Amino acid sequence: MKIAILTLPLHTNYGGLLQAYALQSALERMGYEVSVLDKIRKPKVQIPFSVSVKRLIMKFILRKNVAPIGQLEDYKRRKKRNTNTWKFADKYIHRHELDNLGSIKEDDYDVFVVGSDQIWRREYILNNFKCVEDAFLGFAKTWNVKRIAYAPSFGHDVWDYTPEETVSIRALLRLFDYLSVREESGVELCMRELGLTTKHVADPTMLLTAEDYKVLIKNTSKSSGNLLCYVLDMTEEKQQEINAILKEYNLKPFTVNANVEAEWDSDKVSVQPPVEQWLRGFMDADLVITDSFHACVFSIIFNKKFIVMGNSHRGTARINFLLRTFGSEPSSERLAKLNELRVEGLIFLSNALCQR
After folding, report:
1. The sheet that has 227-230: what strands, in order across it?
2. What distance in Å separates the CA atoms of residue 282 and residue 301, rounded to the nearest whole number?
């Protein structure tokens, strides 16, 4: 069977890249052919012939500075920012590039797996897809294909879809053969707002082991310290907290990310470090300080102690659920729970794919 994974577009987000890689890997180990649906990176900019001629004359004959076209300039900035993360995606993820989901044909795939990450968070859908229904396979609603939701997240525990969108989402999810979500709050939202029963399963990154990830980082250089600070939304208050923690622990701090999101609308463009180096940070760390969901996940996978800084902007429900499930201290019980959830997740996928 040919399987398509529908997730958020792949860019500089380490967690987004690794959850797509992990879900793809788990499905391929079961013997399936897998593609991850992703946006075309370079925009197709159509310039009228007369404008093209004028720009060429200005640039090469009159030797004038010609301002770059907006979309192409944006692409150049993204290409620089994503140099390393796109390299990881091209090397390890089988991407199916497309302009929009409407270009997919019914016979392209036998199965669509929606997940994971916050693909069911309304604001993220509207930023990345043509309409809300796309994230729930609205483009394929009349097709004879298998539909599986594996660990999608709403991002928070509040339902913010409009009444009209809710009706559409309910109808589309009733077409799914197997439904799961990533958090208990998602289970509650599906029941309360949609009248649908589902279950929570582990984030796709947890379907692989620490040993699986160590294969990816075997050729990376050792981290420059042993206290990993990975904070997505730095504030003065968070910096003060970090400074207090540094005084308490006799550890050397290091970071593994550029401030790319803070620079999104500025003229400055930093290059996000390689995914492999980000992973190596968790292997080398004795302690992790973060406000990121997936940094908490990888701290758990590598069985490291971590300290979480609240980040309501990105949703606290998912991190709270993670802490209730695993705690923040390394232990054999944590690893046993992780293995239990890994097996449950793989069984869920196997059953969903094998049963008719």
Report:
1. 253-254, 227-230, 287-290, 305-308
2. 9
d(CA 356, CA 78): 42
Q: Which of 248, 336, 328, 338 is nearest to 290 (CA)?
A: 328
Q: Whole-angstrom Cα distance, residue 53 to residue 47? A: 10
Residues 6+ apart with CB under 8 A from 326: 300, 334, 337, 338
37 sits in the region (left: phi over 0; alpha: psi -120 to 50; else beta) called beta
For the stretch 59-69, pLDDT in tens is: 667 676 655 55
Grade residue 98 by pLDDT with cuts at 50, 70 and 90: very high
240 burial via Cβ count (<10 Å: 0-12, 13-18, 19+): exposed
pTM confidence score? 0.91
User: How far apart are alpha carbons 188 and 348 in whole angstroms?
Assistant: 19
